[in-house]
Amino acid sequence: MDWPIAEVARMSGVTARPLRHYDEIGLLPPARIGANGHRYYGERQLLRLQQILVLRALGVGLPEIGRILAEQVDEVQALRGHYRRLLAERDRLDALAATVSRTIAELEQSRKDGTTMTAINRPENLFEGVQPSQYEETLRDFPEHAEAIARRVAAMTPQDVEAGQRERTAQMIRLAELMAAGHPADAEPVQAETDAQYRALTQLRTVSAEEYRALGRACVDNEAWRAAYETIAPGLAAYQRDAIEAYAAARLS
Question: How far apart are CA 199 and CA 159, in angstroms?
Answer without folding.
Answer: 21
